[in-house]
Amino acid sequence: MTDRVLRQLREGRTVRAIAATSGVSEVFVSTMLDHFERLGLLDEANSLCSSGLGACSTTELTDEARVACAGCPLVI
Question: Is the pTM for the entire model greater than 0.70?
Answer without folding.
Answer: no
